[in-house]
Amino acid sequence: MSLILAAAAALAVCGCWPFHHSPSPQQQFLEAVNHGQAAQASQIWLHMNAEDRANLSHSQGIMPAMPADDVKKQIEDHDRKAMEGEPEMSDEQVETISPGTGGASLQDLPSYIGPSTPAPADSH
Q1: Are 54 and 69 a contacting pair, CB within 8 Å?
Q2: 114: Cα within 13 Å, side-chain hemisphere
Q3: Under a CB-based contact definition with an 8 Å cutoff, are residues 61 and 29 in contact?
Q4: What pLDDT digit, counting tens, does each position of 46-72 carry?
Q5: What is the pTM of this model?
């Protein structure tokens, strides 16, 4: 019994407690990338071993952003609405965009470039 307590105390002191779950290197890498922290993502990638990189390529060690039950519920709601003919979004959720207001489009590009000038002739 004292051996078990000593082992548990040693694990707790060294920070290797089996119930302590820190994010996997794969999760840390993806969070850094998703937050636009390229330097941090690069450092995490450099410190990952070959097994961690292989796990990342197989989506192992990654926690989903949304629980599977929530995803299943959203899919069921979507399918139910599609069967009943309900719109995907309410009118309040739809943002209307008026073309030509609040910015330029590709059709306005020639006015920004100006008239084209002929290329200089080669004097060879």
Answers
A1: no
A2: 2
A3: no
A4: 999 999 999 988 888 888 777 888 889
A5: 0.41
